[in-house]
Amino acid sequence: MLHVQESTPMPAKFADPKSHAVPLHLVAEDQLDAWLSGQAAPVSKWVEANNFTGALGQALVVPAIDGAAQMAIAGYGNETSRQRGRFHLAGAAAKLPKGTYRLKTNLPATTLANETLGWLLSSYRFDRYKTSPPMKAELIAPDGVNADLLTTIADGEMLTRDLINTPASDMGPPDLEQAARDLAKTHGADINVITGEELLTQNLPMIHAVGRAANRAPRLIDMRWGKTGKKVTLVGKGVCFDTGGLNLKPAASMGLMKKDMGGAATVLGLAHMIMASGMKIQLRVLIPAVENSVSSNSFRPQDILTSRKGLTVEINNTDAEGRLVLADALALADEEKPDQIISMATLTGAARVAVGPDLAPYFSDSQTFVSTLESTAETHADPVWRMPFHTPYEAMIEPGVADLDNAPSGGFAGCITAALFLRRFVTDSPYAHFDIYGWQPTAAPARPKGGVGQANRAIFSAIETLFHQ
């Protein structure tokens, strides 16, 4: 188990264990009768009078004779209802009145940790522009959970949510850079940023091409942390707003484009988890931060760009810009031959059509990485779904007039062809790519509508398992 180092305080926290606490019993539907049989008659009558059945999301406070809270009960549903979601305790926690609670349950350790994390995540509020009332109920960390590690994970997720939720007016490339610098300062990491025309002199031409039309200059953020251990490089797509470029998006498609830096936000949150936990690895974070804007110097359809790797790319849609900026960053990452490269990006609408908003599709040719990730994803209630690097589709990304096509015609297998495109730029290192959505379209327990991290907890645990020494 990892030891958590001290870091700058962030929002997630447990209640003081010395506080007066109300016992909170977690009771499933099929356990309610047995639980009630062990309670005093007034408790049973109160539960019955308030129609408490143990259904998911139910919460009930049982008063004592003096009116103070004697105990509270949270419904835990049944096996079928629990399979339809996650963070079930969080649904009840949001309904509890103000107070400090101590959980009473016999949940297995892994399930208990996930439910406890869900409670922490329920306290998230995005209040930069509008004050929101804080969560009323506080939880004392249950016995048997690693409280420091859970708060570290929650803090990383909250960082990701804040970055995604912030509109592009306040989260352009310079602001994303500042967020990375703040994180680096917190953890004593080194950071270097290549900006504007320097991208050309440093051979990062596609990052420059995509971002040159914006008033806020494009840049590559390069953060390093850790001096010993295996080398793991995270690459996050940082398109702070995507108009579609000259292939301008329609309004309906442009509405959520503040989240097109969701890959960058997620790797920064993941980086916080890794650094705050003191994981023994050498971590590198690369973020190409750009805005895909429309101007007289925008890159054009049918332009041919030369990448850092030397591969030429025909531009058949300027709205397929994320893979271009990632390509240069991946080529740079690959030159160091790390033990693992992981890219995260809100890359394709095809991925959403394939698996919807809740699953994080990913690509990897390493069975060791796949089996570890699948295991950690299940353990941490952080669902992922493997997609294929289907080599026969390679021909679809070869246009004939250049080495690669950034937007193959036909519309088939869009997330696969995008992943194959990215794989062309990683030739010397193990590689995994995550095509995430980064957005919760409707509120769910522990996940309000808005920005959300995906696969970060699963990746964090997989990195610990595979590379932590």
Automatic annotation (TrEMBL):
The keyword Signal does not apply. InterPro entries: Leucine_aapep/pepB (IPR011356), Macro_dom-like (IPR043472), Peptidase_M17_C (IPR000819), Peptidase_M17_N_1 (IPR048816). SUPFAM superfamilies: Macro domain-like, Zn-dependent exopeptidases. One of its GO terms (molecular function) is metalloaminopeptidase activity. Keywords: Aminopeptidase, Hydrolase, Manganese, Protease. GO terms for cellular component: cytoplasm. One of its GO terms (biological process) is proteolysis. Residues 317-324 form the Cytosol aminopeptidase domain. Pfam families: Peptidase_M17, Peptidase_M17_N_1. It comes from the Bacteria. Belongs to the peptidase M17 family. This is Leucyl aminopeptidase. It comes from Sulfitobacter marinus. The lineage of its organism: Bacteria, Pseudomonadati, Pseudomonadota, Alphaproteobacteria, Rhodobacterales.
